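Progress narrative, Year 2. Work on Jg7454 protein from Pararge aegeria aegeria advanced from sequence curation to structure prediction during this period.
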Amino acid sequence: MDFIFFDANGRYFNFLCVYQILYKPVILLVLSSLQTMRWAFMLCTISQLDVLIYNFENMKELVKARNCEINEAFKDEFKKNIVHHCAIIKFVDTIARTFGGQFLLFFLINTIIICTTAVQFFSIPNPLNNIMDLVWIFGYLFIMIIMLYIDCYLGSIITEKGSCLSTIVYCFPWIYLAQDMKKNIIIFIVRNQQDLVINASKLLPISMATFGKADVLGQINLCAPDRFVWRRRRPPLLAVPRGRTNLLNKAPLTRAIRTLNDIAERTDLFCCTLTELTKVALWCICYSCKV
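Result:
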């Protein structure tokens, strides 16, 4: 920091010297604390997901340790895990709302800094005669890339650990459980089809896929949220038979047609992906359990 004037006998010279000495360490401490704060919350989320995965993987031992009827013991343990999972989802949403703007600004500023620093790195004249300049610029560029990489890596770990919960729950021998517990497991698997992703202000996902793509600005989805977009209601897939008696309304065929129409309102059955098709199949199972 260069001062406009220099007066050693000035009244405020000592204060200016103290400020000159302290302002850089203070700025470094503030920036490092802001950076590591969101890393701490993300690591806390990963540790809680590890605990939840451990509880699901050792469900048999936890059920046997209760020394009671298997359905009742599984219901209590599964309820605790569901409450834990809901708390993790709320915690991830809180992280996204709290640090979403910071994530977005950090991504944009970091991308600009990395590009300009790389240009400066390759535009140094006589690199052999300016080794220290190369070392400083390369070190600064490396630190920026590493900070960006850690954010994306932790976000990907959260998404991967959240998505593997469905597989772990499905591996439990739930076929021998009661009908109510089967429906609860299916509902949990359907709910867990939605990935646990931290979004930067609901525009940019924090993941390794974002880090691996050069056009970070192109990844930003500037579309309006779903609640502000008017969507045309899909017509019913099949016509529901109508009659004057309740026998036709309660017939299995009529209930099956209504089930398909309810599902068709949510998903386009003819132009859906494999994940959406899996959701439709699980919805059909849930409706059949209700019937």
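Residues 34 and 102 are 9 Å apart (CA to CA). The chain has two domains: 13-230, 232-291.
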